[in-house]
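Hi there,

I know you've been waiting on this one. I reran it after we fixed the sequence typo, so this is the corrected version. Both the input and the resulting structure follow.
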Amino acid sequence: MADGNEKVDEPKKSGLAVGTLSMWEAFAQGLGTNGPAAVTALFFVSIAGLVGASLPFVLILAFLIYAGMTLITYEWSKEVASAYSWAAFHKRGFKRLGGFFSYFGGLTYWYYYLLGYTGFAMLGLSSFLYVLFPSVTSQYPWLWIPIITVVIAETTALAYFGIKISMRYILYTGMAEVIFLVITSIIMIILGGGKNTGVVFTALPVGNNFTLIFVAMMLGIATFGGINSIVPVAEETKNPKRNIPIALVTLASIVGFTLLLNSYSQTILFGINNMFNYATLPDPGVTLYLKYLGLAGGVLLIIFVINSFNTSGVSFETSTIRTVYGYARDGVFFPKSFTKINKHKVPGNVVIFTGVFSLVIAIAAGIIMGPFTASIFLILSNSVFSFFNHALAGLELSVYHHRNKTLKVFRHVVIPWVTAIMIFIAIIYVVYPAPPAPLRYSAWVAGIYALFVIVTYFYYKSKNPEKLKKIGDFTL
């Protein structure tokens, strides 16, 4: 979109499978990325280790912030439908700096998707399986490597054979997962009886230590991460400027309710005074389900968690592929060979590159730090860029609508700016107080990558500035 003095975006040819996905299939892209059951297995443990029974309180605060982040994405998705969505958002924000932020924002979001795929989906899955079968993994400590290799091959194959089949698989299994989590949470709340309390929605369990609350907030926000990753499939969605916003609101509501309900049910049953021990157990969620819902409940949770990590891998890889394709289509950063579309209407060369590159990252990080620590390390590192891009897009939203004389103060100024302030506070707490090594270096790695992106930007600006002008322009 443009203001009255600018040339309005003209329809362009995508190359992808335009108009393939329904609203619900686009919804599945974000549902898969978030992976609700996987989130309960990985993030609940990490947050409870910091704040104990204040887990639900942290998640409520985090969801309020993430709701603001979703509003920002929602507003931009009504204006833009593009595979490299964040690059397109930033291009339409600040006019003079739009080119730089478009280049920087899109490539840092590629980093977010790539490390989400390797860190959360792949290493997260191997970590879950490791503690689930400790006797096997102690005997074969290298077993996570073939597990990751097989799962990356499987998710890459799904990505290669077209987006429709991938999104339908995620939609059906993902909604079954959500229904399972909601029903079992309600049952556990009923079983909790007199244990039900509002204390878990306060900072009292941590002695009103809000430093701990804010430190945990980063992981809390990341708990809802992935919801906004619907936007990279906008080009492949029917009537995207209508259906993507609807999908975002629907998904945020469903995932927010599900995760908050499940965190509350697990906290009260485990015990307010015991929640700091929650993180010391291997797969505490499975332990609770086995204890209160029997073998069937525990086994079903395990199946849904494994599938949840897998669908997250499919969705994260889908976002990674679309972002790379968008840049390659503009002839920047990635080779033109990455624009070749296979008979399944996906960029096949990008799919193969992403699978191989992700395998290298996952194995290297896992060998250096171990699967679980490597998973948290990569998640912390990529979250910085998700936070930054949402905050920046929020500030740009008010500038964009003011310029186009379509400004609505509460929607385009108040909520985005408050959200941006809260996001910057969360970023500060990623760095200080610094987590123990090696996790403290996650922000350093993100900083090095940011510097690399900036250097390449100025390289293109000096060698081929015309190519830079294209970045972020494309939208349906």
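Quick highlight: Residues 23-386+426-468 form a domain with the Amino acid/polyamine transporter I fold (CATH 1.20.1740.10).

Best,
R. S.
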